[in-house]
Specification:
The protein is α+β, with helices and mostly antiparallel strands and 288 residues long. Among the domains are: 83 residues, no CATH class; 65 residues, no CATH class. It contains three helices and 14 strands. Strands 5, 6, 7, 8 and 9 form a five-stranded antiparallel β-sheet that branches. Strands 1-2-11-10 form a four-stranded antiparallel β-sheet. Strand 6 and strand 7 form a beta hairpin. The chain is rod-shaped, with a radius of gyration of 39 Å.
Length: 288
């Protein structure tokens, strides 16, 4: 049986004690550094969120002052634009809630709350001259008929047909029985209209001003947009889902930190810098 020298045992205990103290101190330091990094990241996230809120409020203020502008107005093609509101469900006005109610959707930010709502008020001004003809049906009844069916581009269509029946009354002139007075008695005019209006709408963020804009376009002749009421609900379920889905869990980048590394002399703490892959679960990411 071998006996352990007390002196060697004492040295071993000293070494283990120093190693334990060293590891404990370094682990505590590392824990503090990790906590500080997490707090810094959280503050950065809150600062980014505050900046985004400020930009959103500024966008809404400018949108309240905006009016419909014409971007392009060439023959048969008009493009007009107006700023879009970025609103939370709690910020919706009664008029905006009424627009959502017309869609039979919810406006409380839950359930089937829409992401975007666009209400366009249009006006058509046109003046045409249409040739008419007198038609007699098999019963001998006569009417004035006309058809307006111009050729249009795209999916636009306009066809108006009209029919005004009439009868001619002949009455003898009381002053001269050999003469007659004719009068035309029109009946009710019937109109039939078939119309397709091709309108394209879109919401985009201007790359320079970062403002949300709604743009509408049509090739229907004589059609203009008197008003464009549009808003994007930033806290709707689909919007939150899209923002969450946009988060990346894996990424490539430069890494700087403080940690423990192993070597032939043992475990030593220190700062490091390098490149690599990092993983951040979505539930640990800050912001929306």
């Amino acid at each position: 049986m071998k006996y352990i020298n007390k002196e060697n045992l004492g040295k071993a205990k000293q070494i283990l004690g120093k190693a334990s103290d060293l590891f404990g101190n370094r682990f505590f330091l590392l824990s503090v550094i990790v906590v500080m990094i997490m707090l810094t990241l959280k503050q950065c996230g809150e600062a980014d969120h505050a900046k985004a809120e400020a930009l959103r409020e500024h966008n809404n203020y400018l949108a309240s002052l905006d009016s419909v502008r014409t971007i392009k107005n060439e023959l048969g093609h008009i493009i007009q634009e107006k700023a879009t509101y970025e609103l939370k469900a709690s910020e919706l006005s009664k008029e905006q809630k009424d627009l959502i109610a017309q869609l039979d959707l919810k406006s409380n930010g839950r359930g089937n709350t829409p992401n975007s709502v666009i209400n366009v008020v249009t006006e058509i001004r046109d003046s045409v001259n249409v040739a008419s003809t007198i038609v007699k049906d098999p019963n001998g009844d006569e009417s004035i008929n006309f058809v307006h069916n111009p050729q249009m581009t795209g999916n636009n269509k306009l066809k108006i047909t009209g029919k005004t029946p009439y009868v001619i009354n002949l009455q003898a002139n009381p002053a001269d029985p050999t003469k007659y007075v004719a009068s035309v008695v029109p009946g009710l005019t019937s109109l039939l209209m078939e119309q397709n209006i091709d309108i394209t709408t879109g919401i985009y963020r201007d790359p320079k001003t970062k403002r949300m804009m709604t743009r509408v376009s049509t090739t229907y002749p004589g059609l203009t947009f008197n008003d464009i009421n549009s808003f994007d609900i930033t806290d709707s379920p689909d919007t939150r889902k899209a923002l969450k889905a946009a988060r990346k869990e894996f990424g490539l980048g430069i890494q700087v930190g403080y940690g423990l590394s192993g070597s032939s002399t043992g475990i030593t703490p220190g700062f490091y810098i390098g490149a690599g892959i990092h993983y951040s679960p979505k539930f640990l990411q800050f912001g929306k």
